[in-house]
Amino acid sequence: MGLWLKAYIMEAILLATEQWLETELSSRILVGSGERLNQVLKQFFDKHGRMTTEEAARIYGMNRKAFSRMFCRLMRLSFADFALCYRLNSAAFCLRQTNDPVKAVALRWGFTDTSHFDRFFAKYYGCTPSEYRQDKT
In the 8-state DSSP scheme, what is residue 51? Predict the structure, then answer.
């Protein structure tokens, strides 16, 4: 599977999250909790995924540990992993859609430097951001 296809699939999954949450949350948690999680996710997406678990928990109205357990139970991954996946997929999309330097893309999506970005990107995609940008298959 081409790397670009993997990025598009992950982006589609993330975009569908809000619709999935409405259905899934109504049957899994108390009334009102789904709306609070939607508020967390809206702020998360508004901030380009630059939100810590502590910030998300505060917005939700729980302590970090309780929020982490609840989020993991609902989403099947930790909030930190969710945020990293979102930021990596968004950065991958930018690499394909723009000619911005890799460093600019990394900074835009909350990575402190290019080596940090390269390490996570290679772990997730199996190649460097530059190789990913060049792969057109």
Answer: -
Question: Beta-carbon neighbour count of residue 114 at 10 Å?
Answer: 19
Contact of 118 with 130, CB cutoff 8 Å: no
Q: Is CATH 1.10.3720.10 correct for 84-134?
A: no
pLDDT per position as a tens digit, 49-107 = 899 999 999 999 999 999 999 999 988 899 999 999 999 999 999 999 999 999 999 99
Nearest 5 degrees, angle CA 54-CA 32-CA 29? 80
CA 45, distance to chain mean position in Å, is 8
What residue type is assigned to position 31 of the chain?
V
Domains in the chain: boundaries:
3-83, 84-134
How far is residue 137's CA from residue 48's CA, in Å, rounded to a whole number? 27
